[in-house]
UniProtKB/TrEMBL annotation, chain A:
SMART domains: PlsC. GO terms for molecular function: acyltransferase activity. It comes from freshwater metagenome. InterPro entries: P_lipid/glycerol_AcTrfase_prd, Plipid/glycerol_acylTrfase. GO terms for cellular component: membrane. This is Unannotated protein. Residues 90-209 form the Phospholipid/glycerol acyltransferase domain.
From TrEMBL, chain B:
This is Unannotated protein. It comes from freshwater metagenome. InterPro entries: Epimerase_deHydtase, Lipid_A_modif_metabolic_enz, NAD(P)-bd_dom_sf. Residues 5-189 form the NAD-dependent epimerase/dehydratase domain. It holds the Pfam family Epimerase. Gene3D superfamilies: NAD(P)-binding Rossmann-like Domain.
């Protein structure tokens, strides 16, 4: 081929230098940092706390996965963050709704991203969570533990922010018609834990989660077969299959309310059932009132 | 008058080690080691009595020597060490019964130290994040070493009631690991491909063998009555520990894990009992503050450091 062109491998070609220039120095540094992170993770060179909480994995992987949901899908507006302490322990008590516990994850992210001290929310979950494969594993890595007195008191005593959803499955598995009506608040175990550790209770109201999966019926037979507390039927699930799992993009508000202080009560206050019931009611009432107030202010579900 | 200490299970690693350490201590006059088989390594400064603790002969040994402290290290963790599960159970349960019966009859006995295991707490999804000594198991162990340990502790409690003048110390150890000891755990982490249960990541806790021996020694010398959790500080996740070994990990669904585990186990490689599998699924963590304040000693090795010490041995042996 006498007429073959000669293609220069180096020299004038403008593309290569431009790529290198683009990469330097910021992107290169970030790539290197990411590479080191991957290497360190693969070598097992990181530490977890006694509960199995892996802060690095939680902040850099798990929370990064749900952040788009928080920012773009639900467009969460968090308020009252000044009511959550910077250093000391507190018990965040919130309403529970929306079939899948997205509300809990969004509250966790609100405290991590928007609180000035970037607090980690350590939630108390049911034993069903910890006996389910994958779910239990991820929950531990995200810092959550079993809802029981010793764990709650240990975390609060260590100065952590602990999250409880006292309505439990009654809350997330309730029909759409009952939205924003607080269910029964368990046995008030969370109040006793706060009293014993003298930590404040922060009643928290979440608006928007109810509309993510409007549950029109509960297939109790299927639920029993699968060993689940409920099996939701929504307008899209199971009708559209996996597509029905996409939550509706409702607009969310999370308000951390005025703290209820527990340090003015006497030493054995946690053993006084009457006081525990009263406090439980006070927390429930405060959350319910805040829910009504937020609902009044809301102009549209998807606004 | 110096003290006379009897140690059971001296032909196995920890028993031999503690007998050697105690024999060196100036406050102890004599150490008598008991086991069914003679020790592999020569134990100097120590009298060895070849006896079966399942046999009433042990009472004679205790009485004639005027033993004042009994260190019970004779609880066997794996069927492989005993030559079958039936023998293992007999050594653990009947052996402890006989030993304690002999102790009860011997007025010179003033202290009893029992090496127990954290496996008495069982493991499962309903467990609190950390166990303190007074907590009851939420998932009672139903098989193997864990069940034996529960029974052994039951006998020990019974003995403590019948002989209130004896200071009884029960040490519940997390998995003991280190450069010298061989356990089901060290075998497991030495497998070239390590099986785990899919979808679960257990929280593990280890105690270095030197720290374990230190606590037993302190229990003998100081006589602290009670039950204590002993473990290195901090935890390792199972996945994290495997990454640190540099071995491959294969995750099997729960229903496949047991049959696969058993087939490896029948090949003589490792002991996969139901309790062991539950531990590798859910893990278990101990609150060790009571032992640390009572004994005035914090383990020198944290859980990750103890594991690193075990890994270091392996690298040396490979090289």
């Amino acid at each position: 081929m006498p007429n073959a062109k000669i293609i220069p491998i180096h020299g004038d070609d403008p593309i290569v230098p431009r790529l290198v220039a683009d990469l330097e120095p910021d992107v290169m540094a970030r790539l290197m940092e990411f590479w080191e992170f991957v290497q360190r993770r693969l070598a097992g060179d990181y530490s977890v706390d006694d509960f199995g909480f892996d802060p690095e994995f939680n902040d850099k992987v798990l929370m990064a996965l749900v952040r788009p949901l928080y920012k773009s899908w639900f467009r969460v507006e968090a308020s009252g963050l000044e009511n959550v302490p910077d250093q000391t322990g507190a018990l965040v008590v919130a309403n529970h709704s929306g079939v899948i516990a997205f509300d809990a994850v969004m509250t966790q992210l609100a405290l991590l991203d928007e609180h000035p001290a970037h607090r980690h929310l350590r939630m108390l979950g049911s034993d069903l969570v910890f006996q389910s494969p994958f779910l239990g594993e991820i929950a531990r890595k995200a810092g959550h533990t079993l809802a029981c007195h010793p764990d709650a008191e240990r975390l609060l005593g260590d100065g952590e922010i602990v999250g409880v959803w006292p309505e439990g499955y009654k809350g997330i598995g309730k029909p759409f018609a009952e939205r924003y009506k607080l269910q029964r608040f368990g046995r008030g175990g969370f109040v006793a834990a706060a009293l014993r550790t003298k930590t404040p209770i922060i009643p928290t109201a979440i608006v928007g989660a109810e509309e993510t999966y409007p549950m029109i019926a509960n297939a109790t037979v299927v639920a029993r077969l699968l060993g689940l507390p409920y099996f939701p039927i929504t307008p899209t699930f199971p009708l559209l299959g996996p597509l029905g799992l996409i939550p509706l993009p409702s607009k969310w508000f999370i308000h951390f309310g005025e703290p209820i202080h527990t340090d003015q009560f006497p030493e054995n206050a946690a053993d006084d059932p009457m006081l525990v019931f009263d406090l439980t009611d006070q927390v429930r009432e405060q959350i319910q009132q805040t829910l009504y107030r937020l609902l009044m202010q809301r102009t549209s579900v998807f606004g | 008058m110096g003290r006379i200490v009897l140690v059971t299970g001296v032909s196995r690693y920890l028993g031999g080690q503690i007998a050697r350490i105690l024999a060196k201590d100036p406050s102890i006059d004599q150490v008598i080691g008991v086991d069914v088989i003679p020790p592999k390594v020569k134990l100097s400064q120590m009298q060895f009595v070849r006896a079966d603790i399942r046999n009433p002969v042990i009472a004679k040994v205790l009485g004639e020597a005027g033993v004042d402290t009994v260190v019970h290290m004779g609880v066997i963790a794996t069927p492989r060490q005993a030559g079958g599960r039936a023998t293992m159970k007999e050594i653990n349960v009947i052996g402890t019964m006989q030993l304690l019966a002999a102790c009860q009859r011997t007025p010179s006995v003033k202290a009893l130290v029992v090496k127990s295991s954290a496996s008495v707490y069982g493991s499962g999804p309903k467990d609190p994040a950390m166990f303190t000594e007074e907590m009851q198991p939420r998932h009672t162990p139903r098989s193997g070493w864990a069940k034996d340990s529960v029974e052994v502790e039951g006998f020990v409690r019974g003995f403590a009631r019948r002989r209130p003048d004896v200071a009884v110390t029960t040490l519940r150890f997390a998995n003991i690991i280190g450069p010298g000891i061989d356990t089901a755990m060290t075998t497991y982490f030495s497998l070239p491909v390590i099986p785990t249960v899919l979808g679960f990541d257990a929280r593990l806790q280890f105690i270095h063998e030197d720290d374990g021996l230190e606590f037993i020694k302190r229990a003998v010398l100081g006589s602290y009555a009670g039950t204590f959790n002993v473990a290195g500080s901090g935890i390792l996740m199972l996945s994290q520990a495997i990454r640190r070994t540099g071995h491959k990990r294969v995750s099997l669904p729960e229903f496949l894990f047991m049959p696969v585990g058993r087939s490896i186990s029948s090949a003589g490689l490792i002991d996969f009992t139901t309790e062991q599998v539950r531990y590798l699924t859910f893990g278990r963590v101990l609150d060790t503050s009571l032992a640390q304040t009572t004994f005035g000693h914090t383990p020198m090795y944290s859980t990750p450091q103890a594991f690193a010490s075990f890994l270091a041995r392996r690298e040396v042996s490979v090289a």
